[in-house]
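Figure 3 (text version): structure tokens given as input.
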């Protein structure tokens, strides 16, 4: 379980870093960051057996 949480956390950090590298305007980057963070939180809650 702990390894799954760590992998999910690392994937979210990596995707957020890659979003920063994309040539998008600020509003699109902000929306993409929020979507990635929400998906990351939902998958962490699945690992913690909340859902």
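Below: residues designed for each position.
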């Amino acid at each position: 379980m702990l390894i799954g949480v760590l992998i999910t956390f690392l994937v979210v950090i990596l995707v957020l870093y890659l979003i920063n590298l994309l040539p998008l305007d600020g509003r699109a980057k902000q929306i993409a960051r929020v979507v990635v963070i929400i998906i990351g939180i939902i998958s962490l809650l699945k690992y913690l057996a909340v859902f």
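Residues 2-47 form one domain.
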